[in-house]
From TrEMBL:
CDD domains linked to this entry: SPEC
Pfam families per the UniProt record, alphabetical: Spectrin (PF00435)
Family annotation (SMART domains): SPEC
Top-level taxon of origin: Eukaryota
Organism: Kryptolebias marmoratus (Mangrove killifish)
SUPFAM superfamilies: Spectrin repeat
Matches recorded under Gene3D superfamilies: 1.20.58.60
Protein name (record): Dystonin
Amino acid sequence: LSLQEGAAVTQRYTDAERRYLAIKEEVKGRAAALDEAVSQSAQFHDKMDPLLETLEGAVQRLRQPPPVAAEVEKIREQLAEHRAQGLELDKLLPSFSALCARGEELISRAAHDDPAAQGEAQKTLKPNISEDLCGNIRQRAEDRESKLNDVLDLAGKFWSDVAALLSTLRDSQDIMKELEDPGVDPSLIKQQIEAAEAIKAETDGLREELEFVRTLGADLIFACGETEKPEVKKTIDEVRRRTRNEDEVVHVTISPRSNKYKILKS
């Protein structure tokens, strides 16, 4: 080779070596970045996966909540349990939001000039859950609490009215039981007839209240579901039975006394 040709070969060799070293450094840099990305991805999923599992479980419970009870105390227990679960979720949601932000940060740090790397980063790091999960959980939790409160009010009215009806019927029965045999005293017979007729008028007035209670019971069954229907229906049937019994007792009390009173006055 001439000196000129030797210099050209040497230059090509030098250029090739420089490119090789540059490529080698770039590969080393990418390998280090990839190792770091893998490490950060693993750390991310170690935190995100169990949190997602918990949140998705919460969403499932809110989508298919247990039936609402019909008894006031049980509804209060359900409400307290729901609120306790809500407090736990309130503690988790900020962590979830922070991890979502961390995931987006990791995605943004992927090489923008490398579509494959960017796509892989999005697939690996982006949370496998819709962005509105937090809002979805909060909305469903609010809807559930609202329903529990509504049913609690309805159940309170139903059981309160049932208790008032039964109390009135018991008082009436106690009065009827206390009526002694009036013998042949027309004035005493008349007093007892008037007392029994007053009770009859009160019992007749209870029929409208009984119908209102029946309507409340139907609304309560609709709100709670079929699981609570037997207990509510049993209660309404019991009130009806006692009302019929009261009618019979009043009739048995008034009829013979009225006949005796007419005979004595004739």
